[in-house]
Queue: 2 jobs
Job 1
Amino acid sequence: MKLEDIYFRMRRDIKEIEKEISMTIATDQKVLHQASHQLFKAGGKRIRPVFVLLAGHFGNYQFDKLKKVAAALEIIHMATLVHDDVIDDADKRRGKLTVKAQWDNKVAMYTGDYLLAKFLQLITELENPEIHKILSKILVSIVEGEIDQIKDFNNWEQSLKQYLRRIKRKTAILLAVSTQLGAIASDAETKVVRYLYQYGYNVGMAFQIIDDVLDYTGTTAQLGKPAGSDLSQGNITLPALYAVHCSDERDQLLELIKNDQISEKIDQVVACIKRSDGIEYSKRLAQRYIIKAQEALEKLPNIKEKETLFEISEFIAKRTY
Amino acid sequence: MKLEDIYFRMRRDIKEIEKEISMTIATDQKVLHQASHQLFKAGGKRIRPVFVLLAGHFGNYQFDKLKKVAAALEIIHMATLVHDDVIDDADKRRGKLTVKAQWDNKVAMYTGDYLLAKFLQLITELENPEIHKILSKILVSIVEGEIDQIKDFNNWEQSLKQYLRRIKRKTAILLAVSTQLGAIASDAETKVVRYLYQYGYNVGMAFQIIDDVLDYTGTTAQLGKPAGSDLSQGNITLPALYAVHCSDERDQLLELIKNDQISEKIDQVVACIKRSDGIEYSKRLAQRYIIKAQEALEKLPNIKEKETLFEISEFIAKRTY
């Protein structure tokens, strides 16, 4: 089954969730309305809603509950994106102007605040203290991760552990919580909730590692930005860390980066990292996370959504864009 | 009774609330910890906690519940302050360096996000859906108000109504909700809750109007910044709006501001606004809000905290710093 088929089968429910998000973020305040809807329409894969819905089938599937959980997670995600764009000084996201580019950093800041406020408002409708607690906890983790990311900018001394901790907070936690909450909102068994969490977490780790690899191996057309953009901005990801810590390219790389003017020599730096085993190492690590995700899946009951989650994990391991 | 006496009498409970805030915002992430504690220590009058506690006496006073409500409101307030400092480009607040000055705008942004996340985490402990709903709703209002404030920057055409709506969201709502939630958390009667809300709201409106007046009439020593600072930054408050819309100074003022280089002529602009009746008009309007607050108070049962709330309203009407 292709990814498109999965989305096609779920299209009605995803549309409903999108309607819920759109209604939730609607406001008379024009700038906030336009900015948050621009962000919303830039869309993306709606992977969090997909995970919530699929996980919901492992319990007593109630779409009305799942819809709100999925919308809340997507809104948190949007809030972090708009604040990330300020940090990354990003003018485009998925080919569209970012809020900070179309308006400015201040509007981007308040649009993020607004989305967090709306997120809070949405979850008060859920009236499930367990879900509240999980959601408020991950929000803290995400923000701590974002400030760690700033701290680790241009830090070539950071360890692999620091990198993994950062991508956990940046990406994996929100995916883990998507499957977890889908199961909890459907009153699934505790064990089932735990395995679904593990699936989401491991897929999320693999997803971010592959994302970081693609920043080196993708073409400008595929990425919508030149290769090595993360690095130019000071975001040192796994391929670069491998190259500097574990490869023969170490000395040459240190020479290239010694005066911090990386962006001027970005092509040389990227070439050097590619010569190291950094890309292959990263892909292997991503593959290990995919296997762990699939091991968690195996322990789940055999329903057809289990197969779908398996397909998604396979797709993430192999994606090239 | 003096304001100091009120604080002295409540000092133990306020200390406990401060401890709750400090524990809530503690984190291993060094920058977030330092930045949020710096903000916390800059302190201020803790007027929201004071309102929560005083209102709590109109019902079944349970300090443990009130403590969490008060801490949550103070944390929301801190989050909006740190984001405001980014908008206002403010280097100092209450004589201390702001987060954006000591670190930078990005740290200030994430410190605000972090505080909002912690706020959310704190209110999940309250397990009272009514309180959740009120708190999530005001957060939306506050953010909408902040973006309105940006929109209204340097807008001399704005109406009195726009100004009032803005200060409602900037200041009055949070004070209104402080007395309201203090009463709700103590299971006070519906009517009592309503009157306490009205008291907080009207005192809040008066407080902000007086604050805006003091920006014109205070000395640099009193304000910690030169008179007319709001205006220099483009924040057009009531005295200026009165001068341009309702006074004989209109033509001269329009001449002074016509090329938008206000900060260069700030002394002349301030003098012109002072010559209009703008300061007196604003004070009269503040006084009207104080009277409304006191009318709401009159309908409340005669307990000693009613007297205290009366004293606070009197103080706010007359304050000169």
Job 2
Amino acid sequence: MSKVYVAVIGAGGVGKSFISQLNAYALRSKKYTISTILISRSSKALLSKDYSGLNLTTWESDISSSSGVKPPSFPDETLKFLTSAPGPMILVDNTSSETIAEEYPRFLSSGVHLVTPNKKGFSSSLALFKAIYAASEAQNGGYVFHEATVGAGLPVLSTLKDLIDTGDEIVKIEGVFSGTMSYLFNSFAPLSPSGAEKSFSACVAEARELGYTEPDPRDDLNGLDVARKLTILARLSGLLVTEPTSFPIQSLIPKPLESAASAEEFLAGLAGFDGEMHKVKTTAESEGAVVRYVGSLDVGKGEVSVGLRNFDRGSTVAGLKGSDNIISFYTRRYGERAMIVQGAGAGADVTAMGVLSDLIKVLERLK
Amino acid sequence: MSKVYVAVIGAGGVGKSFISQLNAYALRSKKYTISTILISRSSKALLSKDYSGLNLTTWESDISSSSGVKPPSFPDETLKFLTSAPGPMILVDNTSSETIAEEYPRFLSSGVHLVTPNKKGFSSSLALFKAIYAASEAQNGGYVFHEATVGAGLPVLSTLKDLIDTGDEIVKIEGVFSGTMSYLFNSFAPLSPSGAEKSFSACVAEARELGYTEPDPRDDLNGLDVARKLTILARLSGLLVTEPTSFPIQSLIPKPLESAASAEEFLAGLAGFDGEMHKVKTTAESEGAVVRYVGSLDVGKGEVSVGLRNFDRGSTVAGLKGSDNIISFYTRRYGERAMIVQGAGAGADVTAMGVLSDLIKVLERLK
């Protein structure tokens, strides 16, 4: 049994689910002994100072008890603690923090492996993206995997890697990359209308109540989450997008509401713009189509875009249900018809699964 | 640069495409020096006796020239030659030979890694399947990857592995697993009929002329190819199917034609049964459905089946085009809606890509 050390930063929805899955994996693994030495939240942490490993069954009550301590400073104390582990070390960043992502190169250079669903490191400045990969590819650099940054647990980045590694050429990637946007448009402009037509603002309010949006839905409607995912796919496909905002992003936030003081004020104001969205929807319908919020990447033309587009009622994108994602890869080898990956692209369990399968990929590659 | 040795048995359509992709990969790889020491066809082979590596650009003319020698005997001389290589050794079996597959355990036990699109080893007797995995998992056993045995280059087995490794439970897997059957039924019972209705036998004859079927179409129509793929998925999902014939397989070969002396005689006779298939098609149409040839695996119920089934016109399966495959994974975590992988599931280039991406997975795992 090889012994491997794991540190988990961020223990919210995805983090909790990840720790539970990691616990089960550690118990059934016959090849690896996994010792989790750090679980850290913003204000409290659990540390296994002697590296013997934390109890992953009781960690939630432990962290709230007197065992919970002030988290080690980041990056200095954390890096020191991690690099002093007596064996291979994997850092799992389950936050969405840019501050943490900015330190990835330092951790990777020190030989710490990294798995994360945090998009920030890979979709912010191009300099950071390059620094992360350079650190990983340097001698004794740690491995980096971030499958869950696009499509949660869906095999999107691993498929892209296989295509590129084997010499295929990516022509175009397009699809529905946001569970929130998917749910919103499947309910606002359904393929099979139920008769009870709902306004766009009512759909947003409903999606928010059901937990499908961020607390402030503007964080979804601005399109930046989708733009970050497209930035990651573009860069991995060789299209070195400078920033996640350096291509056209269609925001669904009406200009006058960008500065609304609260989510509630925004939602109240949004109803005033329902007419515009209704027109977008009926125009699509008159063409036998439905409107959807998609991202698109054309490697040949060097173009990336994010926004509304009409899809034929018979198309796969139009047929999407619930909050499912769909990602279509057009490549030289696959020709006219795409290779398609489809399914739930959000949710704590499937996101955590993407993170854990990355962690297993690191384990399998350890020398 | 780590040096790795590769032996390729079988250099037909997939084998040729594989060697061309391997050549390109070897030229651009900055991490591995790949030395191909054997390319073997049924009657002729190229050997690099000093392990310095064959020329992958000129191999086709070389093998037909005086450089082409009698292949080393299998398994004895081949095994001896491979295990004497001065570094990690990967065997690529691009044949569909059962005789070769039966020797996988010996090669794996000797530390030779194996990648293959050959279904035989994994879909014949359960004893062979178990012996292969036991040999691979034993101390110093070689790795085994066989992504291209199901869905060619589509990420099917890797996705199944990720789901299982991370502790998800496979509930059901179903889909269209044969490019031939996909093409045949998309043209016999199209979603959008063109008006010019074709009989089933005419569709089979046409598919054969276009190279979509085996030389004798009965080798597709008997359903055994699909049954072998289902056997592999079932076993990897923990359902230990004894034989690829130990569950219901609906053959599309009319009983009286099973013994037809030739493919031509079979095709001539098939027209006499067009009425039956026409009835199957119109019955589906009267229910607002289309008929498709699918495989299905219910892990909970322990049931596997292969045959015709009707699909709602609005379903993803009904919307399939050309010779595309579709594979739907229903799991505990993904819930009601499946995770779906879709795209070309046959063809030399995409199959070879599946084999090469497996070979790269071996390289990445070498100690």
